Amino acid sequence: MVKMANYGENGKITLVPNGGNVGIGTENPGSYRLAVEGTVGARKIKITQQAWADYVFDSSYQLPSLSHVETFIKENKHLPEVPSAAEVKKDGLDLGDNQVLLLKKIEELTLYIIQQNKQITEQNKELVEVKKRLAEVETKQSK
């Protein structure tokens, strides 16, 4: 084990030679390749994921009904598939998996908006037709 210290706040850097794990601000990086006790600042972080959420746009994808989502939220106080605050506090959060999940939720929201837009467009057409019929009835009654 190689230790380097600067005596500022959490100034410990630990390299564990038997696995190459690195700890910054901690002497025990555990099973993590890099463990940091404190805040990490970076210009850019690249997360590589094998799976991505584009399957939401596949015609075979079953978009949950909004009533199902609403019921789930009322019962669980968080979105379906999204970890609860208690789960995140207990287990932490995998940023790569979370990015995929958030994109999935955005894509589902987009599909809901498209559905609602189609419904609004259809309702507007029906409204124009109803107004036209009403005007015809009013014209006939006024004669």
Backbone structural class: alpha+beta
- Give, in spatial order, the strands making up the sheet with the most strands: 1-2-3-4
Largest sheet: 4 strands, mixed
Q: Rg to the nearest angstrom?
A: 28 Å
Uncertain residue ranges: none
What is the CA–CA distance across the termini? 100 Å
Strand share of the residues?
5-15%
How do the SSEs run, as a string of H and E?
A: EEEEHHH
Provide the number of structural domains. Answer: 2
- Total of helices: 3
Number of E strands: 4
Shape: rod-shaped
Textual characterization of the structure:
Keywords: Coiled coil. This is BZIP transcription factor. This protein is an alpha+beta fold. It folds into two domains: 40 residues, no CATH class; 87 residues, no CATH class. It has three helices and four strands. A four-stranded mixed beta sheet has the order 1-2-3-4, with no helix packed on it. The chain is rod-shaped, with a radius of gyration of 28 Å.
Q: In short, what is this structure?
A:
With 143 residues, the protein is an alpha+beta fold. Helix content is 45%, strand content 11%.
